[in-house]
Amino acid sequence: MPANRDYYEILGVPTNASDEQIKKAFRRLAFQYHPDRNEDAGAEDRFKEINEAYEVLSDAEKRASYDRYGRVATSGSYGFEDFGFGGLGDIFDAFFGGTTTRARRRAPQKGPDLQARLDLSFEEAVFGTDKQFEISRVENCSVCLGVGSAPGTNPQRCPNCDGNGEVRRIQQSLFGRFVHTATCPRCHGEGTIISQPCPQCKGSGRQRVKRKLRIGVPPGVDERYTLRLNGEGEAGVYGGSHGDVYVSFSVRPHEFFVRKGTDILYELPINFAQAALGDNIEVPTIHGKTVLKIPPGTQNEKVFRLKGKGVPRPDDRNKGDQLVIIRVITPQSLTDDQSRLFEELAGTLPAAEMSGGEHQGIIDKIRSAFGDN
Q1: How far apart, in whole angstroms, are the C-alpha atoms of residue 286 and residue 309?
Q2: Mean pLDDT over the full length of the chain
């Protein structure tokens, strides 16, 4: 301790403080700066100061010498062991009748949950399916049924802790008698020891096995959807229940359908004649083929909605729609007859004019294509 530090100042008491005041101040500061409780830098040095000050001021002869000469001849070191502070748990035992190191009671604990991910086709995600998959999980040993000892034998009570799973050590200190409780080092808190381990699990009572599980995938799931299989996770301990298995999904893309939520997008290519004159075209859907009526004068990117031809909703089974996007295809090559017919047709058509709205729509698409806002 620095020479200029005053013992009374360290404990925060006046020079005429009573023995009870000094003792109370020391207890309060010891709790505050004990290294098991305070991890701040300098807490350990501060605690040593407090110990040293109390060791002097709590002794009548040393205190009288200190009051007269400003110092006192002391022997020994003033570390943690001088006052029997084996840990913060001992202090709690002394003042509150409890302990921070008491072994946990063997309450049933639920086993860990597991994760699984299944791969689905586009159709399986839309219509639902039954899937079988394999998981690896920890179960109670099939030979000893989780006991850990060989068949025909039983675990024995630990002689070190008498089956309590914890041991106590009595320690004398400044505050009186301390009772320090800790997990039994021999049985590790189990209260029992296994003299003849199970040959299957080597005494652990557990084994890892592979299991095949089945799950019913409802219609309309997607990659944001998760299903839970109750009780199919790893085994619990001390009689606790099994954990659960959470199943998520990945969906393979379709050849020409694109899913957006519960709607399905489909691009339908048509030629100039079909767009200009109209037509009845057979269109594929995920539910089968249907006929779509194309009215005369249909423009490129026109969207038609086929009600109820989309994906079922997993919660209420109502279906989304299929959106058919028209793509008017310009031929890349023409025969002589086709060229002649187009030339004759071109002579009868007025010059194409673009409205302001149409022009702005094309400009917006160009900007969007190049990422220009």
Answers
A1: 7
A2: 82
Tally of domains in the chain: 2
Q: Is the dihedral of CA 297, 303, 307, 309 positive or negative?
A: positive
pLDDT number for residue 260: 94
Strand-pair category, 258-260 with 245-251: unpaired
User: Is 127 among the domain residues?
Assistant: no
Q: What is the pLDDT of residues 84-97, one digit of tens each?
A: 343 444 444 444 44
Q: Which residue has the higher pLDDT, 353 or 238?
A: 238
For residue 322, tell me if it sits in a domain: yes
Of 68, 83, 98, the position where a domain reaches its end is 83
- CA–CA distances in Å: residue 280 to residues 6, 270, 307, 365: 103, 11, 17, 29
Tokens found for residue 21: 């005041």
Position 248 in a domain: no
Supply φ then ψ for residue 190, to 5 degrees.
Answer: -75, -30
What mean pLDDT is predicted for residues 68-86? Answer: 47
Beta strands (DSSP E) in 195-278 are 206-217, 226-229, 245-251, 258-260, 263-270
CATH of the domain at 65: 1.10.287.110
Residues spanned by the domain of 70: 7-83
Q: Give the three-class secondary structure for 137.
A: strand
**Considering only CA atoms, which of 56, 5, 50, 46 is closest in space to residue 25?**
50
Identify the domain boundary among 30, 53, 83: 83
111/70 Cα distance (integer angstroms): 64
pLDDT of residue 81: 36
CA–CA gap between residue 211 and residue 142 (Å, rounded): 14
In this predicted model, what pLDDT tens digit does every residue of 267-324 receive, in sequence order? 999 998 999 999 999 999 999 999 999 999 999 999 999 999 999 987 777 899 999 9
pLDDT at 126: 95
How far apart, in whole angstroms, are the C-alpha atoms of residue 255 and residue 252? 10
Q: Are 245 and 232 in contact (CB under 8 A)?
A: yes
Q: What is the pLDDT of residue 371?
A: 45
187: in domain: no
CATH of the domain at 333: 2.60.260.20
- Structure tokens given for 333: 């090559």
For residue 180, the surrounding DSSP H or E stretch is strand 176-183
Q: Highest mean pLDDT range out of 5-14, 157-166, 250-259?
A: 250-259
